[in-house]
Amino acid sequence: MKYENRLIAFIDILGFKEIVRSSEKDDSKIEFLYSVLDYLKSWETSESWSSQLVEIEEDAQKKGVENFDIRDKTNSTSFSDSIVVSVKVENNVNEMASTLIVNLAYIGAILFEKGILFRGGLTIGNLIHNENGTVFGQGLIDAYQLESNNAKFPRIVLSDRLLKQLNYPLETKRNRYPYHQYLERFNDGCVGFHQIIYFQVIESWTEMTEEKLKISLEKIRKVIVNGLDTSFENPSVFEKFKWLKEQYNKLIILNDFDFETKTHENIKLKIRELNEGIHGHNVHYKYTDDFYDSTKK
Q1: Are 9 and 120 in contact (CB under 8 A)?
Q2: CA 112 vs CA 47, 132, 159: distances in Å
Q3: Which of 137, 203, 274, 277 is 20 to 30 A from 286 in CA distance terms?
Q4: What radius of gyration, in Å, describes the C-alpha atoms of the chain?
Q5: Coil, helix or strand for 118?
Q6: Per-10-residue mean pLDDT for the chain, 297 residues long?
Q7: Beta partners for residue 126, in sequence order
Q8: C-alpha angle 278/283/289, rounded to 5°?
Q9: Residue among 18, 261, 243 at smallest CA distance from 116
Q10: Do 197 and 120 touch, CB atoms closer than 8 A?
Q11: Cα–Cα dist 188/211, whole Å
């Protein structure tokens, strides 16, 4: 037994304690909680880490989609409100990081639609991670500390160590990898991706119809709006949802222009500021959102 060089993601579900506490008085919350944890548990099978969402990328096709397969190199362990995913890396860190990031974004998007937010840290380092769930090593400690100290918002941030091994600076299109469409540098200097970036990248996928995209973004918008209005006594929670509101509004949906109405809100309805463009001094974002939602319909 010896340490392996692995990509390591440590992910934590936000608000988990509150969900558990509320489940003691609401049986439906128990079922909801179980379904979420059961979904995460399903990713403990190596075969779950498909390269399907990478294969549709032109960057992967040019480099050979077979090089992006991580199924026999991936282990995943979920416990309580956390999940650890690691991928064995040799001289293929760009390919392995691409497939891991795409799948993590997909998982995040699915959970977001259910109202579940997460944050995490993604790094590379020494780790032992077996199929039976045993996992330890400095790489895990680094990923955990990255999540705890740097992630702050519902996003996954990358370590300096990993970024130095990825293909930056990106000077030409032919050197691009699928992860380049997911990663960005945020205002606080961190580099990473959030759960809803999946919808921007995957828009051109033939299986993602405009109707499916519209339904998913509608669910995402409602989660954020409700989050903004359930945190009157918790500024730190409000700060996270306000950050998500900004990320949602920044999403670029190429097919969003409606030639009949001449608007840019055909698929994604913007989350507006309190009382934006309407009379009144309401304190709920939902009031403003409902007003524009009804106008759109």
Answers
A1: yes
A2: 23, 28, 24
A3: 203
A4: 20
A5: strand
A6: 95 88 85 87 86 89 93 90 94 96 95 94 96 92 97 97 95 90 96 96 86 95 95 90 96 80 80 90 92 81
A7: 5
A8: 50
A9: 18
A10: no
A11: 35
3-state secondary structure of 205: coil
Cis peptide bond N-terminal to 169, omega within 30: yes
Q: What is the pLDDT of residue 262?
A: 60
Element (H, E) at 219: helix 210-228
| Residue 219 pLDDT | 96
Task: Using alpha carbons, list the distances in angstroms from residue 22 to 17, 29, 54, 164.
Answer: 9, 7, 38, 43
| Token output for 284 | 């709920």
Beta strand 118-129 with 191-194: parallel, antiparallel or unpaired?
Answer: unpaired
The length of the chain in residues reads 297
CA-to-CA distance for 155 and 147, rounded, in angstroms?
9
> What pLDDT is stored for residue 181 in this prediction?
94
Q: Copy the structure tokens of residue 265.
A: 């809100």
- Please give the backbone phi and psi of residue 184, each rounded to the nearest 5 degrees, phi first: -150, 160
CA distance 6 to 22: 37
Cα–Cα dist 244/154, whole Å: 8
Q: What is the DSSP string of 151-180?
A: I-SSEEEE-HHHHTTS--S--SGGG--GGG
pTM of the model: 0.92
Token representation of residue 96: 């392995």
Angle, in degrees to the nearest 10, between helices 210-228 and 93-113: 70
Output b/e per residue, 193-212; b: 16+ Cβ within 10 A: bbbbbbbbbbbeeeebeeee
3-state secondary structure of 276: coil
Which residue is it, tokens 């955990």? 144
Burial-class residue 80 by CB neighbours within 10 Å (0-12, 13-18, 19+): exposed
Contact 254, 271 (CB under 8 A): no
Contacts of 151 (CB under 8 A, 6+ apart): 119, 120, 121, 157, 190, 192
